[in-house]
RNA sequence: GCCAUGGUGGCAGAGUCCGGCCGAACGCGGCGGCCUGCAGAGCCGCAUAUCGCCGGUUCAAAUCCGGCCCAUGGCUCCA
């Protein structure tokens, strides 16, 4: 009945109580637009999507904001290779990211704000921090003074002493404390900052640096610091206090820690009530496992995977483990996800087919089936309410699939029970988890393909009737090579398009 | 070094917050059977788990407490 979520701030599962009983403000720390999205990003996206969907299913109006960080050294490093200047490079990657999100069937956020469009708000927030004594200017840059913020380190569970010990005293001598972080950075981008992110064909650092964006500010020409953007955009598009802030676990420190410090120092309010962190994706190399990351170059892109396996397999892979446990990306893991997805999809189709068949008797009531539907709904809800446990939720759905398959094995059919099963799968698997079930609503191309397969299968039936199994099997193999799966049943051959 | 997370069957992965229904779910893979021209799908059944190690609390522990070992992530590029 009550939704509970693991809050990084406390490290505990807490009852979720939004500020407003029917609205949830959710901010997702989006991507830096300097690389294509990989499956690590996709897994995070997919889990946030499941959260978004479940919150809506529970009746909340979800105001979801996801930013694009389009001002960053890594983007500048792409100048010449992916665009003529920082803005052009960012634009190109943003278009690709949006395409990826669409292909994954993600619920749209209300807005996708960009750093470059919020410089005013960022400067205003920095000014407020300086005025309030939380930040200081040094050489045209502005730094946040961590000693002024009492709770600094609360999210990552570190004390200021520990953090100071970690800082590199050699760098940034104008900082008062090694743990202080930049809110505003003087000047443009230094070529050496670009050099380390340079890719093959990128422009030489000096040339790229010239094409970096800079803005006027009370402290002179410069660029926003890394963390301030999210604070500015979250408060601008949502509110000073939001309900849920989600992001990858790799952002806990320093990014989220700093967001809290600067936001709360600026507004005097709690920045986010619940901090949820998605675990990272790992890749197995010859020697060890390491996280999938753009900078390590060990990634599989979203577009590539969607092309090869489809969005539902990607989703099944992502949701087959809880959002806060790490996942391994491998061919074997994808194969398993594909099998799981197909079992779910086939179960749904079996229910639909049975319901449409003459064997769906009007008076039969199959108690086990009806009970299974009720159990599935209850178990699914309990699982999602328990910290968005998508794995358990999927278990409930696959249990229902088993019940459907058992019921469908023998006629007559309980059409009302089947209807309930279909509705449960559509609302739970479809709406709440975002799978695209029975998306047969294809256009003319799909219908033509179906008609063509029917023609081939008719020829195959002829061959089978003649006992020419060699030819029949060859036709089936040829269809299989095209991704068309053929199955012989009592009612004749059935097929599924790829 | 500091912080965090995790160690459950061949694989993957729930359960650990709130001890007993867990001799441990769902799925993948393996084996056998039903069905079938064959295959696939589906159904039924079987085999693999002293739940990282040691100790403690308890009538009862995968679940609580203490210690240890190991793995991964973070420690100012990162979802």
Automatic annotation (TrEMBL):
Zn(2+) binds at residues 29, 230, 255, 259. InterPro entries: Cys-tRNA-ligase, Cys-tRNA-synt_Ia_DALR, Cys-tRNA/MSH_ligase, CysS_C, Rossmann-like_a/b/a_fold, tRNA-synt_1_cat_dom, tRNAsynth_Ia_anticodon-bd. Keywords: Aminoacyl-tRNA synthetase, ATP-binding, Cytoplasm, Ligase, Metal-binding, Nucleotide-binding, Protein biosynthesis, Zinc. It catalyses: tRNA(Cys) + L-cysteine + ATP = L-cysteinyl-tRNA(Cys) + AMP + diphosphate. It comes from the Archaea. One of its GO terms (molecular function) is ATP binding. Its cofactor is Zn(2+). Its EC number is 6.1.1.16. Residues 379-444 form the Cysteinyl-tRNA synthetase class Ia DALR domain. GO terms for cellular component: cytoplasm. Binds 1 zinc ion per subunit. A motif ('KMSKS' region) lies at residues 291-295. It is found in: Cytoplasm. GO terms for biological process: cysteinyl-tRNA aminoacylation. ATP binds at residue 294. NCBIfam families: cysS. Belongs to the class-I aminoacyl-tRNA synthetase family. This is Cysteine--tRNA ligase. The gene is cysS.
